[in-house]
Amino acid sequence: MSDFPPQPLSPLDGRYRAAVAPLAEYLSEAGLNRARVEVEVEWIITLTDHSLFGSQPLPPETKQRRRALYLTFGQEAIDWLAEKEAVTRHDVKAVEYLVRDRLAELGLDAIAELTHFGCTSEDINSLAYALTVKRAVTLVWLPKLKDVAATLRGLALEHADAAMLSRTHGQPATPTTMGKELGVFVWRLERVIKRLEQNEYLGKFSGATGTWSAHLAAAPQVAWPNIAREFVERLGLTFNPVTTQIESHDWQVELYDAAKHAGGILHNLAQDIWTYISLGYFAQIPVAGATGSSTMPHKINPIRFENAEANLEIAGGLFTTLAQTLVTSRLQRDLTDSTTQRNIGVAFGHSLLALDNLQRGLGEISLSRDVLLADLDGNWEVLGEAIQTVVRAEVVAGRSQITDPYALLKELTRGRRVGAEDLAEFVRGLDIGDEAKERLLALTPATYTGLAEQVTRTYL
Questions:
Q1: Which residue ranges run through the membrane (predicted)?
Q2: Is residue 199 within 8 Å of residue 258, measured between CB atoms?
């Protein structure tokens, strides 16, 4: 084993790296450190903008050179921080030293003590995590989720009129259309997407226990909560003024619960599409050169949907753990959140991988309308609902003396296959008005779809 080359332990960093790489820009350790540097740099700029402790606002070119520390953050800084943390054994302290070091290089030693001024590590972490998660979600993960919903919407509208046998409890039931059934998932997803778009990303910046005590000791005349709010909001985050040492993470709990909810809907979709493929409703489009089965050449396995299903389960479990753990912090601070938050990227990584598979899978299927119609034609008994409902209406209208329409149709159809001629003969013998009888005789399983197409086109 000593000769075995180093390998990624997680498949996200190995087999599936290409699919999830955009998340690493934000949710990796390096991405977190870059955001920490950003917070430290912007805090110094804010303090000097307010001319605190005799400092003067930095010239624009100097500010830009300071900001270059995080705007051009790369391998050199990553390596520097790794070496420094090996000595400090504290990641945020290593970032502070990096910023101080670069201040000296710029000849700004006079304001070096403003680095990390009044801050506890969680002031930096709170904002850094909020920045990285917000960017990862809004720039990478949520657009992919919207892409899947848009692809699904296109399929729903394309197949809005494709009559299909329903299977409630797995049994033949009142027909619908494939478009309407796919539209249900679009409708569900877009509600959750709206919640995700409205999610706040909160940050605190109030010192060791959320009281600005050190700040007031240094400058009691300064309105520190106002400066903190200005600073946090300038970073594009929502200010949380009432905290312990940590920001309470409730915004994260809300986000991960919503992400898990979206994943649950997608898991349902993956299983349904898989089932439709197994029924022959969807044909899979062969990919040139791809192997479906290692031993059965005829097969095209629905691996995109199976892969999505599994990764959504992993992501859902991690989102649940994140939400359950982060909602609690003992007294004013404990470190259970530290390790937990380092897995945010893993959760979104598995979710993003699932989204990638779903989008690919949805683009590799073709609706077999002939199979849908054949299935409908083999299940005329589903019209039993229509017949007994019409009979009930005729009874109320005084055009029928039938005493128990449901029992009458139950005796005819339950547990039996009934063909078109059987039903036609049955309808002709019913004690109902001629107009109702003609409507029922004209009905087929393929036309008994109610407002399915209209619902799809109206609401999507």
A1: none
A2: yes
* Topology classification of domain 129-207+233-368: Fumarase C; Chain A, domain 2 (1.20.200)
**What is the DSSP annotation of 316-376?**
HHHHHHHHHHHT--STT--SHHHHHHTTHHHHHHHHHHHHHHHHHHHTTEEE-HHHHHHHH
> Residue 216: which H helix or E strand, with range?
helix 213-218
| 5 Rama sector, left if φ>0, alpha if ψ -120 to 50, beta otherwise | beta
Listed residue (173, 245, 257, 259) closest to 209, CA to CA: 245
Which segments of 50-177 does DSSP mark as H helices, in order? 60-71, 75-88, 91-105, 121-136, 142-158
| Dist CA 297 CA 293 (whole Å) | 6
pLDDT tens-digit map of 366-402: 999 999 999 999 999 999 999 989 999 999 999 999 8
- The DSSP output letter for 57 is P
Extents of the domains making up the chain? 17-117, 129-207+233-368, 380-444
Q: 347 and 315 in contact (C-beta within 8 Å)? A: yes
Per-residue DSSP letter, 12: G
Which entry of 51, 278, 293, 338 is annotated as an active-site residue?
A: 293
Q: How many residues are present in the chain? A: 460
Q: How far is CA 417 from CA 164, 271, 374, 412, in A?
A: 18, 28, 14, 9
- Element spanning 90, H or E: none
**Which helix (H) or strand (E) is 171 found in, with range?**
strand 171-177
Amino acid sitting at position 397: A
Per-residue confidence (pLDDT) for residue 298, from 0 to 100: 52
Task: Tell me which residues of the chain have a pLDDT lower than 70.
Answer: 1-2, 287-299
Q: Pull the structure tokens for residue 362.
A: 């949805």
- Note the pLDDT tens digit of each residue in 85-99: 999 999 999 999 999
293 as an active site residue: the answer is yes
DSSP one-letter code for 139: I
The active-site residue out of 169, 294, 298, 366 is 169
In whole angstroms, give the CA distance from residue 82 to residue 121. 17
* CATH H-level, domain 17-117: superfamily: Fumarase/aspartase (N-terminal domain) (1.10.275.10)
Instruction: Write down the pTM of the prediction.
Output: 0.93
